[in-house]
Amino acid sequence: MTLWDKYPVIKEEMDAFEGTLRRFLSSKNELIGSAISTMVSAGGKRLRPALTIASAHFGEYNMDEIMRIASSIEILHMATLIHDDIIDEAKTRRSMETMHQKYGVNVAIFAGDYLFSTSFSILSVKEDVDTLVHIASIIKSVCEGEIEQYCSRFSKDMSVYKYLRRIRSKTALLFMLSCELGANISHCSRDVTNSLKRFGMFLGMAFQIKDDILDYIGDETKIGKPVGNDLKDGIYTLPLIYAMEKDNNGKLKDLLYNQPYEIEKIIELVIKYGGIKYAEDLMDKYSKKAKEELNKLPHNEFRDFLFELTDDLVNREN
After folding, report:
1. 238-276: per-residue pLDDT in tens?
2. Which of 19, 35, 45, 223 is the most exposed place for a label (fewest CB within 10 A)?
3. 158: burial class by Cβ within 10 Å (0-12, 13-18, 19+)?
């Protein structure tokens, strides 16, 4: 039983969303259409459209409009995943071949560009110029976060501050935007909209920290990729960054100068120096902040859903 199943309205609307998403992503080009269809069929958490849909229920809900906005957000997210996988040279995602592995890098790049243009085409139908400029600025920040991550690979000088700034850009901003657009399209009050935006930001931070924790202590069969995958690519995340700060003997840094990495030894030291514990504590702080924003919202089943979604995401195993 999924969380959707506990909330019939959400379940019905998420099912409708899948149909809308597929309609928007139909392509006359057989190759691009096939590649994108494979990606859609692989599924995913669909968190961003769920946030958009739930947020919209705090205002004047219009299903057709919400499906349109939710689809554009998910399509943007899909485009970033394709490009991320190419840059990271990832072979699998959700235990399936990545697009560039299956269809080649050229097709994957075309597909990613197609998705970006499709998303903005959907948005440009009804959104005003100011909204489009705002969305574009968010996507620019997401890209900057990804570029910063790429440029800082294998850097021993990463700090907790730099890490938090990076995940705010590459992950949390899109969570925030998902909530914001849902609230705006439903004409929510300023107070409700601001609480939903802050909730999305804090949830996105907690979500990414959890993701990075799982890279060290996750179950490979559940997370769909090898443990230490980011570490092997030189992407140093919160557990390792904190552990390096506490490693007075320099054992971790010594291990990081040797290739290939001895992943098990590195993970042992990250745990020993409190990297996982620190990351879990910070994740819990962001989760608590997210819930504080939810407590400011009108009490209805959609607020209850967002509370449960928050708990599910920080307790997840994949």
Report:
1. 999 999 999 988 899 899 988 888 999 999 999 999 999
2. 19
3. buried
**Is the CB of residue 111 less than 8 Å from the CB of residue 86?**
no
pLDDT number for residue 1: 60
Supply the CATH number for residue 140's domain. 1.10.600.10
Judged against a pLDDT cut of 70, whether residue 110 lies above it is answered with yes
The count of structural domains within the chain is 1
pLDDT above 80 (res 92) = no
Whole-angstrom distance, CA of residue 38 vs CA of residue 96: 10
Q: Is the pLDDT of residue 165 over 70?
A: yes
